[in-house]
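Retro notes (design track)

What went well: tokenization of the new backbones is finally stable.
What didn't: we kept losing track of which sequence belonged to which structure.
Fix going forward: every design gets posted as structure first, then sequence, in one message. First example under the new rule, 358 residues:
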């Protein structure tokens, strides 16, 4: 999302060339292996940014925000707004960076940015996975907080949607973002604006110009569609399609009572891509257990332990694009409750798979 320097009117802001833009951190996507069917590859790429539904995402502020507690509160409010959509994720603030999947900084001069979805798990626990480089208490700032959290949920930039059909005046875009206050080099402009996402990086919808994941652009940058030659001006709030899209990835209303995964009992996985299997584990003996999948499917398997009523990550494995099955080996303790979640990327040729504890 963008931040606009204070001026007298909205019209002045749009024409003054003073918009600051967020940037996604670069992604390293695997190349399509020779012989891998395109639908399988696209399903894997689409799913790699998504958390398993039911995850509790812990966030931590790495340092006090310049400008006071109102900056941190704006981020908390943005998490609450995403949660109010009715998604199957929870957000919990924690006191230690080592306990957080999302680590938030307020480094001025470094812009506002985020890693995309589960890419944050590859970042050192001492480093930021998200940054806010300008005031979040304005309308534009509140939109920025919503936008960056959208990235953390796995949502890319909407204007890079290949279904948008946007034709840019590319040299005008390079010149606009290459000047102050952004001063981006051409590669950064290309990666965050001009590059069209591949089919494997998008899910579903046509372009939504009202999305909170859409940048605001002044006039003179878009050649077509003709109706946007004078600029793209999203409202900076969660659109209806934003809400619909995130609920599709993370459906809420999950029942508390899960089926019990018992040792040496195989449970079939009858899933469509992006769907998920969930089961509880209540071991009757303390020992090392294996939890794994069978079949040709590509999945991510994650095991959580219930601690003080909250599910905490314990172990996980992602077999997507590999000729093997997901497997974790971990010591479980009698009397404790665990939850295993298996999210499907691709069902494989047979469409049959299963999960088992042993």
């Amino acid at each position: 999302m963008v931040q606009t320097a204070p001026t007298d009117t909205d019209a002045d802001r749009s024409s003054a060339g003073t918009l600051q833009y967020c940037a996604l951190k670069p992604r390293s996507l695997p190349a399509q292996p020779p012989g891998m069917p395109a639908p399988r590859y696209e399903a894997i790429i689409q799913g790699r940014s998504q958390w398993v539904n039911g995850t509790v995402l812990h966030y931590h502020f790495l340092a006090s925000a310049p400008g006071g507690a109102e900056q941190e509160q704006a981020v908390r409010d943005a998490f609450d707004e995403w949660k109010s959509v009715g998604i199957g994720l929870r957000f919990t603030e924690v006191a230690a960076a080592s306990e957080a999947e999302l680590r938030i900084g307020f480094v001025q001069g470094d812009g506002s940015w985020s890693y995309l979805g589960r890419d944050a798990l590859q970042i050192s626990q001492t480093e930021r996975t998200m940054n806010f480089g300008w005031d979040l208490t304005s309308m534009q700032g509140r939109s920025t907080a919503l936008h960056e959290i959208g990235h953390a949920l796995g949502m890319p930039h909407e204007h890079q949607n290949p279904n948008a059909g946007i034709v840019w005046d590319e040299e005008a875009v390079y010149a606009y973002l290459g000047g102050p206050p952004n001063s981006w080099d051409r590669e950064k402009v290309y990666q965050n604006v001009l590059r069209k996402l591949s089919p494997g990086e998008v899910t579903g919808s046509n372009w939504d110009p009202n999305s909170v994941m859409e940048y605001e652009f002044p006039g003179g940058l878009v050649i077509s569609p003709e109706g946007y030659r004078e600029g793209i001006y999203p409202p900076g709030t969660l659109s209806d399609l934003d809400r619909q899209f995130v609920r599709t990835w993370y459906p809420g209303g999950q029942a508390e009572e899960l089926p019990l995964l018992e040792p040496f009992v195989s449970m079939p996985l009858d899933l469509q891509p992006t769907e998920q299997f969930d089961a509880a584990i209540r071991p009757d003996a303390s020992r090392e257990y294996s939890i794994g999948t069978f079949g040709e499917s590509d999945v991510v398997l994650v095991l959580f332990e219930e601690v003080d009523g909250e599910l905490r990550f314990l172990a996980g494995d992602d077999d997507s694009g590999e000729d093997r099955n997901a497997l974790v080996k971990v010591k479980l303790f009698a009397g404790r409750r665990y939850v295993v979640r298996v999210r499907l990327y691709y069902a494989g040729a047979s469409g049959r798979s299963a999960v088992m504890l042993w």
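Added context from the reviewer: The helical segments are 10-15, 38-47, 69-84, 139-152, 170-178, 186-194, 240-249.
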